[in-house]
Amino acid sequence: MAHPDDAEITCAGTLMRLAEMGWQTHIATMTAGDCGSLTGDAAEVARMRIAEGTAAAQLGGATFHCLNEHDGRVVYDRNALQKTIDLFRAIAPTLVITMPMSDYHADHEITGQLGRAASFVFAAPNASALPLVPGSTVPHLYYCDGHGGTDRLGHKVEPTTRVEITDQLDRKTEMLACHASQREWLRVHNGIDEYLSTMRYYNQTRGSECGVEAAEVFIQHTGHAYPANDLLAELFPLSASCPDEMKDTPSATGS
């Protein structure tokens, strides 16, 4: 993710479902979100937001990591990419969820590019000085939903994959509430108040599209060398209550 709280908004419910199945889960951010406050210097805000991210991740059964790039100034360069590769090298992920390649925030888009690049190359022996974990390979890769379900130009995002999070929505809300510093910032800078209820309403809206109470949605990356089977759809098939037309889509069948 780009900032602390991005995972809690976009994919924490899915991460919780994976953790409940016994997966080891991680939440990593490119930045500490040090620009996301009206008060305090960058170091102070970074410490606060890393603490919030750590608490939220623990609540969801995940481990938190921060790569300490500059908030609002994430760039695709060798240093940022190497940090991301090294993180992947240490974790050896088999499933990666990163940020959309088209979204309202440039940090999100660059993070998506870094996540894609690192996922492809981290298992190459010479990509990192860190030891290669046996079995490391190109993982399943998914992009999160765009903010409000739209891309950077306001066009609607059409997901390939939908994961029901009805049973996880309350704890996902508790995770997002750990980021208490963001309420006033988002209200003043982004014009968003009641961000907890906004997140819940949006997940419920996405859920209504496939006949469940709440859902998170993703776009799977199936380019060359990446697994083509929809692992999330296979792990979490949509419930029998979903409309027949939704069951026939690639997101529901896992094709």
Structure description:
- This protein is of the alpha/beta class.
- The chain contains eleven helices and six strands.
- The chain has helices spanning 6-10, 12-20, 42-59, 78-91, 106-121, 169-177, 182-190, 195-208, 231-235, 244-247, 250-253; strands at 25-31, 62-69, 95-98, 140-144, 161-164, 215-221.
- Strands 3-4-6-5 form a four-stranded mixed sheet. A two-stranded parallel ribbon has the order 1-2.
- Helix 3 packs antiparallel against helix 6, helix 4 packs across helix 5 (106-121) and helix 6 (169-177) packs antiparallel against helix 8 (195-208).
- The protein starts with 5 loop residues before the first helix and ends with a helix.
Q: In brief, what are we looking at here?
A:
The chain is of the alpha/beta class. The chain has helices at residues 6-10, 12-20, 42-59, 78-91, 106-121, 169-177, 182-190, 195-208, 231-235, 244-247, 250-253, and strands at residues 25-31, 62-69, 95-98, 140-144, 161-164, 215-221. The chain has 11 helices and 6 strands.
Which helices and strands, and how do they pair?
Layout: H1 6-10, H2 12-20, E1 25-31, H3 42-59, E2 62-69, H4 78-91, E3 95-98, H5 106-121, E4 140-144, E5 161-164, H6 169-177, H7 182-190, H8 195-208, E6 215-221, H9 231-235, H10 244-247, H11 250-253
Parallel strand pairs: 1-2, 3-4
Antiparallel strand pairs: 4-6, 5-6
